[in-house]
Amino acid sequence: xxxxxVVLLVFDLTTxxxxxxxxxxxxxxxxxxxxxxxxxxxxxxLNDPNGLVYYDGEYHxxxxxxxxxxxxxxxxxxxxxxxxxxxxxxLPSAIPEENGTMIYSGSCVVDKTNTSGFGQDGHIPLVAVYxxxxxxxxxxxxxxxxxxxxxWTKYAGNPVIDLKQKDFRDPKxxxxxxxxxWVMVVLLPTDxxxxxxxxxxxxxxxKTGEFTANDSPATVWECPDxxxxxxxxxxxxxxxxxxxxxxxxxxxxxxxxxxxxxxxxSTFINESKPGDIRFVDWGKDxxxxxxxxxxxxxxNRGAISIGWMNNLQYANDIPTTPFRGxxxxxxxxxxxxxxAPALRYELRxxxxxxxxxxxxxxxQWTGTDVAQLNQSxxxxxxxxxxxxxxxxxxxxxxxxxxxxxxxxxxxxxxxxTIIGYDPSKQQLYVDRSRSGDVSFKKEFPGRFTAPxxxxxxxxxxxxxxxxxxxxxxxxxxxxxxxxxxFPKPESRGIEFxxxxxxxxLIRSVEPIWK
Length: 514
Ligand code: FRU
Description:
Blueprint: H1 3-14, H2 16-24, E1 44-55, E2 58-66, E3 76-82, E4 89-95, E5 102-110, E6 126-134, E7 137-145, E8 153-154, E9 161-165, E10 169-176, E11 181-188, E12 193-199, E13 206-212, E14 221-230, E15 237-245, E16 255-263, E17 268-270, E18 278-279, E19 287-291, E20 303-308, E21 323-324, E22 331-338, E23 344-351, E24 359-366, H3 370-378, E25 387-394, E26 400-406, E27 417-422, E28 427-431, E29 447-451, E30 458-466, E31 469-474, E32 479-484, E33 493-497, E34 501-509
Parallel strand pairs: 1-21
Antiparallel strand pairs: 1-2, 2-3, 3-4, 5-6, 6-7, 7-8, 7-9, 10-11, 11-12, 12-13, 14-15, 15-16, 16-17, 16-18, 19-20, 20-22, 22-23, 24-34, 25-30, 25-34, 26-27, 26-33, 27-28, 28-29, 30-31, 31-32
Bound molecules: beta-D-fructofuranose.
């Protein structure tokens, strides 16, 4: 054996601890399952997005983070910033766990007029409102930053609300312009109760209302959001209360439901019909999404949200390393006003326009013959494993759709993730039963469906495929299905099936990591 190799081997064996360290501080973003255009932390565990806020040219993404490991624990606010909502730069952790108090989910506001008095020398404070969690008690705390979120000081008068409760968490705070005060929506999760508070200085809070809903299938609510959303084709805006459901979501496990109504500064008045439960996403991996505070003026464009692409059933077990946990694409939220049979408002979600510069046209096809479509795709040198598919087809009699991340070596029995439409049931579905590694938890594999009716006889799909996820937007965001997948890197095939195709556009998506 070559001497240098022996030395290297011995070195390898005797310094495994060091090597392990090197692996966990991998900064390449090139690992097998590393999302290429979704945010994930370089290392370790992350869950909910927290404190989404825009300030002075920067979008801030804070998140539930474990600085010490790849499983949930030691909750700290991790931190990343972006100038375009697409490319993210991870910064040192923002707010650390301290003296046994973990920093749970919450939000962040820009205190422009220094209502809190935390501002100094003309520096506008960013104020984070989060749950301080210790054994047997959860209470609401605040911290502030005078240097654009880089360093934080916890308020000496914490907690700002303590009900002496074991479960009392996830404050969402925003400025309510009509009556010039701050509003907090915060949950008693196991009572499925949202509480509303108001404040003029972010330190002293007065309770103003409560919301419960007997029709929710969940047994636990987490991570509320209350936001005004524009209604398509009108000058109207309606308030939407989002509630993450810890269980009993349509695909099983965790998910998000929403109610549409009014907000009068004190409490939310639900206008959704009782029993008419609305879900934000029909896939398995969309949780704890919240919207940005203080977005720059956007005309009548919608609110923007980011979710945690995971499910509480198996979040600790997904086979990624040296990181665990990914954020979804940012989505623009709007409402559609449906007049018949009875007036109601339905959520519409689209990937934000800011993603467009990442897209390069790779394959374009119009026609009706699926064999010809597959042939022309085969002769096209589509490269890369991250892409956005845009399909339009007639919802004819047979099932129609596409298989992605398909292992072509094993002739039909290998890996594939199927995105399809079943016209007889008017259902859009994603089947990840054989999508790759599905063995780590029995709740992972499966086929998940969303109700979707054709529009003028047609269905259009936008499908964002990354190394370990598939996000599907049906009929311009009428329904979405978000799912993780863990295929082999070699499983790169794309194959269309069924009748009724009209057009296909495939655009490769550039990685956001340099
Ligand atoms: C939701 C959640 C929140 C809590 C946080 C702790 O995933 O359980 O309710 O604040 O995660 O990490």
